[in-house]
């Protein structure tokens, strides 16, 4: 506490700052209290008397709720480290945590801030473990055994070293400081590890800690040297640095107001005759309090703990050190900075660093460097009962097989793989087992609707398989998002309309084009005869039959570009060039069309639309137990014309029989099943319009 007398120098801390002067009730400032539990009373006292209360060790954020302008926190409050803790949790992608804290104002103060920080990164606090400062070892062990029954394996410890060392020691004893567990201690323990013995450090091997960081300044090194000379081997901790800076700030502030009249209002609080007077009744009001408070809030200097400058009545924390506790002491694995988050080093600008690479290699409990999952199967976990359909066909989706010797069930298929993959991605363990929906003799117990209704009745906790999301089913169970392609389609056979027969070579050209081509050949022959007859004397000397044969031989030989050079007539040459170009186009088009007709299949569905099926009265197939049966009835198809199948092979057999022999000419089924069928018989069948609405496969839950 500071007396009414001013201070002449700030280089040394006079005893007047730490001792109560002779006039004990007339003080202008109080340095204290020692902890957060004592603070409310003292803060209220200072508020009434206008005496600044300067604390270097009361760190609970709950003290802010007192809203006293005369409370100065010359330290960091505990809420300043929650962002560093949440950054660690986010970097390793843990989804659940359990805070373990001392059951008092110090322990409870950090919780609201932890909850807010974890909500921002979508992390759940499964349970809050409050341990009394006076708990026995058996009481602590009972609480830890309770935590072992939960799936969460990430624990955040916020307490002071005396209780923390007991907690860690007992956790080590019962096997909770082992492989798979994650322990993170706040600066309540990390800053005061020097007070813990070597055995406690051995127990904490693999624990992470968030520790207050002070930069290595000249002021800190000078103060550390003086401390060692004065106190020998006793290690300097953060609170002693803050205490020195708090005293320095107070001394500087008192010097600043040295010209202010330091006096007290001696008005005594009135008490009734029946009331018994106390020392608090003589509490006086310091008239210098507002001026001293203003001086304290504006003072700024480079102290041993860094820059001393108050913001909202307290020091602001911008950097924390992340330590990995080992048997021989602590090892720095990174830092947290308010500007960039987690970084490996403070020397390099790491603004764009990836979170996953932001810390050095960490040794976890169990002496392993493999990052724990953050959850394990609890010791008393109840397995979810998941129903799966028992079916004879379409086993690519769900297949249930039983070993004849051991009766062990093996359940496989696409739906099972998807569900298993989803469960492996969960941030915590969910034990479950598959139970086939079958009778004791291994046959199906009923339809999909019956299986889902049994989930509603509570016989099963859920259902996995090729269960389609339907509106009527959603009335009594919940569905997950669909994981398959949606829709219902119609499959029909196709026929090959490719031209066949001995006259197929005439098909590439139409009758009109054949006639026009023949006429062109005759025309070209006549024109060549006219031109050659006028210009070629040798041609004139031939007989009429030879002239006609030469002319038409020339005309038809252009098809194969085997014609000879015509005689001297320029017109004949020009006509030959044009005619060869026309013949080139004609022959290439003819060849391409004929090749396509002879090689490419021209598959056409036997039915073009669903309405044609209704009019034709053919048989339609649907999968046994499927809801598509009700859809077909709603579309007014005759029930006697509806046939069932259990597998793609049975569907094909029905198609081969056709309606005339008790088979089918179309199948009505979901896209997933149809694609499986088409993968085997795509060349023989086709899907026709329209596609009917369905929501696809989804997992069922009660």
UniProtKB/TrEMBL annotation:
The keyword Endoplasmic reticulum does not apply. It is found in: Membrane. Residues 383-702 form the Ionotropic glutamate receptor C-terminal domain. Signal peptide: none annotated. The chain crosses the membrane at residues 513-531, 574-600. Keywords: Glycoprotein, Ion channel, Ion transport, Ligand-gated ion channel, Membrane, Receptor, Transmembrane, Transmembrane helix, Transport. It holds the Pfam family ANF_receptor. It is a multi-pass membrane protein. May form heteromers. Glutamate-gated receptor that probably acts as a non-selective cation channel. May be involved in light-signal transduction and calcium homeostasis via the regulation of calcium influx into cells. This is Glutamate receptor 2.6-like isoform X5.
């Amino acid at each position: 506490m500071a007396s009414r007398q001013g201070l002449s120098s700030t280089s040394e801390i006079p005893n007047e700052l730490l001792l109560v002067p002779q006039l004990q009730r007339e003080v202008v400032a109080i340095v204290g209290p020692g902890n957060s539990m004592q603070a409310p009373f003292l803060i209220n006292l200072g508020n009434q008397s206008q005496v600044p209360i300067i604390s270097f060790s009361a760190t609970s954020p709950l003290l802010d709720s007192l809203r006293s302008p005369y409370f100065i926190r010359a330290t960091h409050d505990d809420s300043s480290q929650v962002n560093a803790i949440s950054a660690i949790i986010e970097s390793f992608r843990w989804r659940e945590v359990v805070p373990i804290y001392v059951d008092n104002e110090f322990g409870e103060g950090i919780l609201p801030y932890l909850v807010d920080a974890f909500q921002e990164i979508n992390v759940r606090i499964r349970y809050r473990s409050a341990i009394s400062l006076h708990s026995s070892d058996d009481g602590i062990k009972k609480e830890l055994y309770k935590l072992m029954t939960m799936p969460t394996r990430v624990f955040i410890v916020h307490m002071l070293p005396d209780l923390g060392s007991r907690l860690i020691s007992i956790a080590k004893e019962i096997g909770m400081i082992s492989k798979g567990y994650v322990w993170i201690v706040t600066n309540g323990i990390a800053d005061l590890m020097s007070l813990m013995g070597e055995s406690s450090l051995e127990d904490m091997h693999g624990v992470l800690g968030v520790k207050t960081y002070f930069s290595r300044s000249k002021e800190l090194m000078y103060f550390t040297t003086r401390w060692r000379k004065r106190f020998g081997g006793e290690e300097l901790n953060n609170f002693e640095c803050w205490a020195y800076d708090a005293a320095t700030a107070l001394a500087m502030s008192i010097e600043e107001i040295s010209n202010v009249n330091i006096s007290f209002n001696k008005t005594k609080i009135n008490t009734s005759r029946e009331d018994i007077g106390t020392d608090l009744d003589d509490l006086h009001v310091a008239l210098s309090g507002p001026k001293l408070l203003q001086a304290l809030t504006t003072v700024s200097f480079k102290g041993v703990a860094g820059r001393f400058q108050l913001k909202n009545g307290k020091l602001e924390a911008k950097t924390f050190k992340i330590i990995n506790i080992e048997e021989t002491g602590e090892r720095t694995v990174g830092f947290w900075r308010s500007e960039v988050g987690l970084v490996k080093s403070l020397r390099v600008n790491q603004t764009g660093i990836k979170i996953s690479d932001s810390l050095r290699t960490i040794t976890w409990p169990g002496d392993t460097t493999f990052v724990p999952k953050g959850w394990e199967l609890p010791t008393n976990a109840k397995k979810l009962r998941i129903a799966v359909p028992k079916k004879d066909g379409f086993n690519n989706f769900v297949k249930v097989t039983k070993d004849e010797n051991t009766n062990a069930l093996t359940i496989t298929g696409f739906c099972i793989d998807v569900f298993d993959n989803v469960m492996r991605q969960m941030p915590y363990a969910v034990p479950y087992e598959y139970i086939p929906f079958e009778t004791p003799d291994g046959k199906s117990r009923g339809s999909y609707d019956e299986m889902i209704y049994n989930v509603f009745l509570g016989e099963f906790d859920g259902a996995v398989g090729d269960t389609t999301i339907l509106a009527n089913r959603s009335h009594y169970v919940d569905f997950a998002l669909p994981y398959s392609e949606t829709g219902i389609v119609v499959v029909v056979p196709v026929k090959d309309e490719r031209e066949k027969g001995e006259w197929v070579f005439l098909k590439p050209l139409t009758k009109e084009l054949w006639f026009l081509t023949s006429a062109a050949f005759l025309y070209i022959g006549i024109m060549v005869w006219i031109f050659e007859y006028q210009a070629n004397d040798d041609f004139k000397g031939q007989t009429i039959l030879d002239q006609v044969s030469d002319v038409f031989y020339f005309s038809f030989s252009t098809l194969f570009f085997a014609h000879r050079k015509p005689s001297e007539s320029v017109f004949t040459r020009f006509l030959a060039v044009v005619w060869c170009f026309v013949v080139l186009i004609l022959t290439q088009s003819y060849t391409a069309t004929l090749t396509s007709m002879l090689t490419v299949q021209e598959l056409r569905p036997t039915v073009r639309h669903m309405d044609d099926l209704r009019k034709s009265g053919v048989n339609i197939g649907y999968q046994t137990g499927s809801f598509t049966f009700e859809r077909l009835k709603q579309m007014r198809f005759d029930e006697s014309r509806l046939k069932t199948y259990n597998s793609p092979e049975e569907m094909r057999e029905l198609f081969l029989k056709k309606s005339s022999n008790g088979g089918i000419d179309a199948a009505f089924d979901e896209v997933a099943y149809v694609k499986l069928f088409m993968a085997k018989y795509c060349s023989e069948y086709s899907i026709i319009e329209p596609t009917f609405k369905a929501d696809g496969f989804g997992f069922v839950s009660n």
